[in-house]
Amino acid sequence: MFVWRILSLIFVSLTLNLVLAAQDDPVRVDTSLVRVNVGVVDARGRSITSLSRSNFTIYEDGVKQEISSFVAAPAGFSVVMMLDMSGSTKSFRQNIQMAAGRFLDALHPDDRLAVIEFYSKVNVLNDFTTDRRTAYHSISVANGSGETDLYKGLMLALDKLAAEKNRRKAIVVLTDGVDTGAQDLDRKLLSNLADPQIPTAIKPETNEALRRVLDRADAQGVTIYPLALPTGDPARLADPTPRQVAMYTAARSRLQLVADRTGGTLNSIRRLEDMGTLYALVAADMRTLYTIEYQPTNEKRDGKWRTIKVDVDQSDLIPRARQGYFAK
């Protein structure tokens, strides 16, 4: 009996370890197709939504690619709304709720929305749904305090989007951009440097957590729109030290990298009263996007950077798309 109990405990322990390991495994997108969301404007910045597949040409590393799939605006998206509930946002939660509500009002009826809150924890408040009442409720109960687990939140959002299969995908993340883990690494890097060395010491693009987020977004063709809160603006720090300026500047630069790499836009919130307008602009921008897929002629998965360029056959129109991806 004693031996049987010992064997049972060993079996339970092994099973638990396997379950935990499975939970830590990243969701992988098993496809070699490249997906690119493309916005097109005229010289006056007005969105153009009347183009067809034949109007577009796409290049990878300068080589023309055959478009295998094309979706015209305004087909539905699967969207993750991410809300920063860290301690720095406590004083204006009501502003956040009202502004996020305007985003819901501006979405396309076919858009499926999930809501995630992040602070020192990351919580899914509702899974993907077209029921706006459910999403409104999630926004109204979002709450938290403490640190900012931004990149962990983005990874969870990308995991959720992976289950949305072939739907068009986007993330709208309201945050000051100051991920606590990244800032801790930046602070450690700067700790032993003299003041003249500090402004150029941090290389924002080398943060490993950020790189994992960007690679996962590449694999799924997810467009990310950061809405940058004024609490993360280095120009608004009160009597800052050179180290504080460097760390906050690096955090804001990383938000810009996220937008540029995924084909989104970084919207900086100057006044809290403008938050709702910017949310509505993001929703409007999503409704003008085209989606192109292609099978790369270069089939090597060598980890190297591949540049993407999208052209339209009308010289007065300007396309906007993600810059490229690492072929992993």
Outline, from the CA principal axes?
A: globular
Number of helices: 8
Strand order of the biggest β-sheet = 7-6-5-8-9-10
Report the β-strand fraction as a percent range: 15-25%
Q: What is the CATH architecture term of the largest domain?
A: 3-Layer(aba) Sandwich
Average pLDDT over all residues = 90
Helix-strand pattern, N to C? HEEEEEHEEHHEHHEHEHEEEE
The helix fraction, in percent, is: 25-40%
Alpha carbon gyration radius: 21 Å
Q: What gap, in angstroms, lies between the N and C termini? A: 52 Å
State the total count of DSSP E strands: 14
Q: Stretches where pLDDT falls below 50 for ≥5 residues?
A: 1-30
**Might you state the CATH topology name of the largest domain?**
Rossmann fold
State the secondary-structure class: alpha/beta
Largest sheet: 6 strands, mixed
Structure description:
This protein has about 325 residues and is α/β, with parallel strands linked by helices. The protein folds into 2 domains: about 35-70 and about 290-325, no CATH class; about 75-285, Rossmann fold. The protein is about 35% helix and about 25% strand. It contains 8 helices and 14 strands. The protein has helices spanning about 1-25, 95-105, 130-140, 150-160, 180-190, 210-220, 240-260, 275-285, and strands at about 35-40, 55-60, 65, 65-70, 75-85, 110-120, 120-130, 170-175, 225-230, 265-270, 290-295, 305-310, 320, 325. Strands 7-6-5-8-9-10 form a 6-stranded mixed β-sheet, with helices on both faces. The protein has a 4-stranded antiparallel β-sheet with strand order 4-11-1-13, with helices on one face. α7 (about 240-260) links the parallel β9 and β10. The chain is globular, with a radius of gyration of 21 Å. About 35% of the residues are buried.
